[in-house]
Design brief:
107 residues, alpha/beta, GMP Synthetase, Chain A, domain 3, 3 helices, globular
Length: 107
């Protein structure tokens, strides 16, 4: 898992919360699936930016997944406005899946 951040401690907390968000079609959480690219904390603006992707641009559960990510991050950091930046550049690839995810998926 390779997540870029400007705050390692708070990123660890955020990733723990994001482990609770599942891709319902695959049955794996979005962290182990490798959908989280970056977490940045803007302390002066009190904003938490989460840059993430989906397995495909046309994922039918995309809105549900991004809404759930926003919700768990807000629950973990209620003092911050949570902003989800959905990107497909770079596109998601299977090599982003964590070892735990690969074991779960029998890859």
């Amino acid at each position: 898992m390779n997540v870029t951040t400007n705050d390692n401690l708070r990123s660890t907390i955020a990733l723990a919360a994001l482990h609770n968000v599942m891709d319902p079609e695959i049955g794996l959480n979005i962290v182990d699936l490798g959908l989280i690219y970056q977490l940045d904390f803007d302390d002066p603006g009190m904003k938490l930016y989460c840059t993430m992707t989906l397995t495909t641009q046309f994922c039918p559960m995309g809105e549900s997944i991004t809404d759930a990510a926003k919700e768990v991050l807000h629950d973990a950091f209620p003092e911050y406005e949570t902003i989800i930046n959905l990107t497909f550049d770079p596109p998601w690839r299977h090599d982003r899946i964590s070892e735990e995810g690969k074991n779960f998926l029998n890859l």
